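=== Structural record ===
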Amino acid sequence: MPTHELPQDTPPPRIGFLGLGIMGSRMAANVRDAGFALTVWTHTPGKAADWAATHDARVAATPAEVARESDVVVSMVVDGAQVASVLIGERGAVEGAHEGLLCVDMSTIDPADTRRIGGALAQKGVAMLDAPVTGSAPRAQDGTLTIMVGGAERDFARAKPLLESMGRVIVRVGELGQGEMLKLINNAVGAANAAALAEALLLARASGIDLEVFQQVLGSGSGASAQLQLKAEAMQAHDFRPLFKTEHMLKDVRLCLEQAARADVPFPAAAHARELLEATVERGHGSDDYAAIIEAAESAVGGSGGKRGGGGGGG
């Protein structure tokens, strides 16, 4: 459980939360536990009411109603189209906007979409930050996410106490959209590491190396990574319970590669990860955790995963 608490001499802002998925539900719980008054909405009928009943939060019928009841509105949804819908679409937050409203989008979307949505909000006098997160569901649960923020310094300062209820490392990257850009780069690197891990596991197994020893050595050497820590066991066990869906990781890698193309910067490691993620989705794992990339890697070596005696340890 997070230990963040509001300063006793500071009146807490009222918070609205749009989106209660795998990440959003955990992040919103930490916001409420930190003492913020919370109004929630989600597009899935009944989901917000069920969540609010166990977290002492208020439920709104529309994002516009959330905005009317809030000083800061957080959005945590799937893609740019959904962010535009909940913030500037029909019955979106902008329709309930009042003086001083701040929108903090914590989704991962195209930086160009962020700037477009931010411009539309600014025309109505509403400020915006982009504040995507990294850390997956476990860190969302315990309030230790890393949060990358783009936007004006004054808006960042205003939002920081709220962000501290959800994250441990909180940095302002630059102007609006720069948080998203760094998040896309981060996820592309993570996907490339996951692809390398999957292929390394197959090579180790095919070579007869005990996979517990494999993890021990990589974890204490230059091959160490967050992906090794988080995904090696899941890959070995083919346990694809979703902490971060394959289809979402693929979306982020595609967006990063689009940005790389615009900047004329090659990123072949991310391109390879995209190919494996696309194959993973084609194999029916779009809604599963991206640890399922191991199956695409196995398919690339004939479907056997390179199994050849002696590769015990970790299933």
